[in-house]
Amino acid sequence: MDALFTATSAVCVTGLVVMDTADYWSLFGQIVILILIQIGGFGFMTSATLFLLAFGRRIGLRERLLIGESMGLTQLGGLPTIIKRMAIFTIIMEIAGAALFYLRFSTESPAGTAIWKSLFQAISAFNNAGFDIFGNFRSLSQYQGDLLVLLVTAILIFLGGISFLVMADVLKTRSFTKLALDSKVVITTTLSLLALGTIIVLLTEFNDADTLGALPIPQKILNAFFQSVTARTAGFSTVSMKNVADYALFFTMLLMFVGGASGSTAGGIKVNTFGMLGATIWSTIRGREHAGAFGREFTTQQIHRALAVVILSLGLLSLLVFLLTVTEEHRFLDLLFETISAFGTVGLSTGITPGLSTAGRLIITVTMFIGRLGPLTLVLSLIQRQQITEYRYPHEAIRIG
C-alpha cells in the first residue's frame, strides 16, 4: 500500500507521502521515485505525441488536432520538433537548478550527498512534484531564511508550471502585446494569483508565532511569496500547514484547485481555464454579448468545455470528500484540503496523510491519478464528441436569479 501510494504520487507529480522520502526509502527507492517524477512531469506534457511516435504511427490530422488542444498548440505541424525542444528545455532548467542548489548544499553535506540532494530538488521542483529528501517531513522549513534555495525552487516551480509553449512565445515575441491570447491569459492570471496569494498569506500569518510571526519582515515576505508559488501544484512548504489559519488554508485550496498552465507539469483545472472563465464573467458583468480578453473573443465551444471541466471537477471533489468523511476521523477541513491537494497534484498536507486508513489511502491514490489524467482526458473526450450542428432548436428563455 505504501509503495502503491508513493509510486502514484511520484508519477502523478503530486508529492503526498505516507512515509518520509529521506527517512524511509533507500537510495534505490529514492532513485525510483525520481525517475517516476521525471517520467510523470515530462511524459504528461507530451504523452499523446510520445505514444504515437513510440509505436511508429503517423501523426494524422485528427491526432494533431487532439494533441494541439491538449497542449495548447496553435499550429498542427512540427510536433516532433516541439517535443524535442520541450525535452531540451526541461533538461537545461533542471541542470541549471541543480548547479545553483549545489552552491548551498555543498556547504552542509559531502560532495556526493550534495550532488544527489541538488539533482533531486531540481527535478522535483521543475516538475512541480513536491518530493524532498531533507527528512522528518520537514520539506523546506529549515531553509526559511535561505534566499538562494527558496528563490531557485520558486523559479523552477514557476517555469515548470507555466508550460514550455508560453515560455517559447515570450522568448520569440519579447513583447506582451504581440503574445498569443493563451499566453496573455496564462501570464496575467498566474501573476495575479501569485500576488494575491502572497498578500493573503502575509496578512493572515504575519503575527502567528507558529508560521511567519517569528521571522524578520523580509523573510516574512519571502516565505509568503514562496507559499503562494508552491500552492500552484508544487507541494513544498517552509511552514507546517497544520499551523496555518483556517482562512489561509481555504485560500490555499483555491490556488491548488486552479493549478498551473495547460501543457505544463502542473495540475489543477489550469489557469487557462480559470482565466477564460474569469474574463467571461467580467464580460457578462459589463454587458458584452461576446466574451473575450485583450481584444480577442473566446469561442463558445471553449467556454462550454471550461465550464464542463470546472463543474465536473467540483462534483468529483464533493464525492471524494464525502467518501473520506465516511472512512476517516479527521477534521472536515483537513480532509477537504487533502483531497484538493491530491486532485490538483499539489502535495501540500496538514499532516494527516500518514494517518489515513487503507481505504483513505486508496481514495487519495485514485484522486491523484484522476487529478493528473482527468482534465486532459475530459477535454479530449469533449473534443471527440463535438459534432457539427446541422439544425438548431427554437430559442426559449430560462429565468435566472
Architecture overview:
It is a single chain. The protein has a two-stranded antiparallel ribbon with strand order 1-2. It starts with a helix and ends in a 16-residue tail after the last helix. The chain has helices at residues 2-11, 21-24, 27-54, 61-71, 79-105, 111-126, 147-162, 164-173, 181-205, 217-230, 246-258, 271-285, 300-327, 332-343, 358-385, and strands at residues 292-293, 296-297. With 401 residues, the chain is mainly alpha-helical. Helix 3 (27-54) packs across helix 6 and helix 13 (300-327) packs across helix 14. A hairpin with a 2-residue loop joins strand 1 (292-293) and strand 2. It contains 15 helices and 2 strands. The mean pLDDT is 86.
Structure summarized in a few sentences:
The protein has 401 residues and is mainly α. Helix content is 64%, strand content 1%.
Uncertain stretches: none
Strand order of the largest sheet: 1-2
Order of helices and strands: HHHHHHHHHHHHEEHHH
* Helix fraction by DSSP (H/I, runs of at least 4): 55-70%
The best one-word shape is globular
Radius of gyration: 21 Å
On the 0 to 100 scale, the average pLDDT is: 86
- Tally of extended strands? 2
Task: Profile the largest sheet.
Answer: 2 strands, antiparallel
Structural class: mainly alpha
Strand content: under 5%
> Number of helix segments?
15
List the helices and strands and how they pair.
Layout: H1 2-11, H2 21-24, H3 27-54, H4 61-71, H5 79-105, H6 111-126, H7 147-162, H8 164-173, H9 181-205, H10 217-230, H11 246-258, H12 271-285, E1 292-293, E2 296-297, H13 300-327, H14 332-343, H15 358-385
Antiparallel strand pairs: 1-2
Helix pairs in contact: 1-3, 1-15, 3-5, 3-6, 5-6, 5-7, 6-7, 7-10, 8-9, 9-10, 9-11, 9-12, 11-14, 12-13, 13-14, 13-15, 14-15
